[in-house]
Amino acid sequence: MTQNARQHLTRNEELIFERSSPGKNGYQLPELDVPEIDPARALGEERVRGGIEGFPEVSEVEVIRHFTRLSTWNYAIDLGLYPLGSCTMKYNPRINEAVARYDGLAWAHPYQPQELSQGAMEVIARLEDALCEISGLDAITLQPAAGAHGELTGILLVRAFHQARGNPRKHILVPDSAHGTNPATAGIAGYEVRNLKSNDQGMIDLEELAHAVNEDTAALMVTNPNTLGVFEENIAKAADILHAKGAMVYMDGANMNALVGIARPGDFGVDVMHINLHKTFSTPHGGGGPGGGPVAVRSHLAPYLPIPRLRRAGDKLEWSSDFPESIGRVRAFYGNFGVLVRALAYILAHGGPDLRNATVDAVLNANYIRHRLRPYFDLPYDRPNMHEVVFSDARQAAKGVRTGEIAKRLIDYGYHPYTVSFPLIVHGALMIEPTETESKLELDGFIDAMIAIAHEVENEPQTVLKAPHRTRVSRVDEVTAARRPVVRWTPEANIAPQTTAADLVGAANVQRPE
Amino acid sequence: MRYLPKSDAERREMLGACGLASADELFEQVPPDLRLNRPLALAPGISEYEIADYFKMLAQKNANGYASFLGAGVYNHYRPVVVDTIVSRGEFLTSYTPYQSEISQGTLQAIFEFQTMICQLTGMDVANASMYDGSTAVPEAAMMAVRITRKHRILVARSMHPEYREVLRTYARDQSLPVEEFGYDAESGQIELADLERKLDDQTACVILQSPNFFGVVEDTGAVADLARAKGALTVYTFAEAVSLGILEPPRDADIVAGELQSFAIPPSYGGPFAGILATREKYMRQLPGRLVGETTDVNGHRAFCLTLATREQHIRREKATSNICTNQALVALMATVFMELYGKQGLRELAIQNLSKAHYLGAKLERRFSGPYFNEFVAQGNGAPVADVNRKLLERKIIGGLPLREWYPELGNAALVCATEMTKRADMDTLAEVFEA
Amino acid sequence: MNYPEDYRYTKQHEWVHVAGSTATVGITDHAQQELGDIVYVDLPKPGTKVEKGKSFGSVESVKAVSDIYAPISGEVLEMNEGLATAPEKLNEDPHKSAWLIKLKLDGNADFSHLLSAADYQMYIGTES
Question: Would you say the ipTM is above 0.90?
Answer without folding.
Answer: yes
